Amino acid sequence: PAGEKSQAEIEALNQAITDSDMHTLIAHLGV
Questions:
Q1: Which of 1, 17, 19, 23 keeps 20 to 30 A from 8, CA to CA?
Q2: What is the mean pLDDT of residues 14-31?
Q3: CA–CA separation, 27 vs 18, rounded Å?
Q4: Is the Cβ–Cβ distance between 5 and 13 less than 8 Å?
Q5: Across residues 2-21, what is the average pLDDT?
Q6: Are 11 and 3 a contacting pair, CB within 8 Å?
Q7: Higher-confidence residue: 10 or 4?
């Protein structure tokens, strides 16, 4: 279907979000 992401794209996006969240969390903790 048009506009549907591939599994690889979804996994890459999820990993990017996870990395971003971790960096944000670390920054807030001041580590």
A1: 23
A2: 89
A3: 14
A4: yes
A5: 88
A6: no
A7: 10
Q: How far apart are CA 7 and CA 17, in angstroms?
A: 15
- 0.85 exceeded by pTM: no
Q: What distances in angstroms separate CA 25 from CA 2, 3, 8, 15, one per listed residue? A: 35, 32, 26, 15
Distance CA 21, CA 5 (A): 22
pLDDT, average across residues 1-12: 84
Place of tokens 């670390």: 26
Token pair of 19, please? 């990395």
Q: Say which DSSP state 16 is in.
A: H
